Amino acid sequence: MHISEGILSTPVLAGGGVIAAAGVYVGLRSLNDEDIPKTAMMTAVFFTASLVQVPAGPVSMHLVLNGLMGLLLGWSAFPSILIALTLQAVIFRYGGLTVLGVNTLIMACPAVLVHILLSPFLRMAQSRARVLVVGACAGLLGIAGGMAFVALAFVLTGRSMYGVAGLFVVTHIPVLLVEGVFTAAMVSFLWRMKPELIESRSYVT
Amino acid sequence: MKNKALGILPAALAFVVLSSNAQAHGVVAHTVEGGVGVRVEYDSGHPVAHAEARIFAPEMPEEPYQSGFTDVKGFFMFFPSKPGEWRIEIDDGMGHRAVKSILMDEESVLQDAVTVPSRNRWKETVMGLLVIIALFSILAFWMSRTRINEKA
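YS: structure for the whole thing
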């Protein structure tokens, strides 16, 4: 889901950078002392999740886990994803430093959307089946939202990107399914083993 | 609780196995040597530059194995993967078309041009994780100091 350097237009890169910076600011404001270990852990998980590859026809995709981050971190997903993406760009050459803002938006905006839409349902969930459903929805929404933002970035760059955006969406369908199952399993596991991780989330103050 | 704790083992094992089989997601370009190519020129001797080129493999006459464009000097290169008759079609989009067949035998089929050793990402991953720990430790320290200062 990382967009490489040299693909998007300068206005899209600049706009993405500004909006991502605003999101990171809100995320840092919402972060409190107790959330730091959890945020650090999720940053590490996001960073290493890129090494888990999902075969998708001729190419391979990797887990993103932004839906899970949305449920656990809320707005703090913004600084968390920014740090992980920066390290991925520097160490693994994924994406690139100039695309950092847009890539952060692509993955963090769906995470915040998951937080706003699904966290209340997770808090109210009383059975494992409901937790699984919420987790699966979070995984699906995280990737689907990311795909929508990638397509938007391509379309805003110019008409020539329409075909690429369509191809991107099609090749990410396997990731969508794997991410839904994985996120559901993880949320269910945390709900049983460490429910306080799910109950304490960062809210904008 | 013990049974619950045991539940994490398959997930952790799957994560490690999948991670160890990870392929590179970043894109790296390597220089290669060899290959088979054609140079296309008009009968005037001028190269057919930036013309559409399509390569058809021996047993796939309908589906292009590779497509692209000739360079400014009319060259187009490809790497045949098996012996047989390979067909190259060049179309300059202005009504000029050339078709060339190249017979490749077992010996002339190119093996992997370069063997790219898979990168060991464990060290890089550990380095990244250490940076994350360091960053959040600094953040926690800074936040606690700010809170102490505010109370004072």
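YS: worth flagging: The longest strand of chain B covers residues 84-91.
IM: good catch. Also The interface with chain A takes residues 4-5, 7-8, 11, 15, 18-19, 21-28, 121, 124-125, 127-129, 131-133, 135-136, 139-140, 143-144, 147 of chain B (CB under 8 Å).
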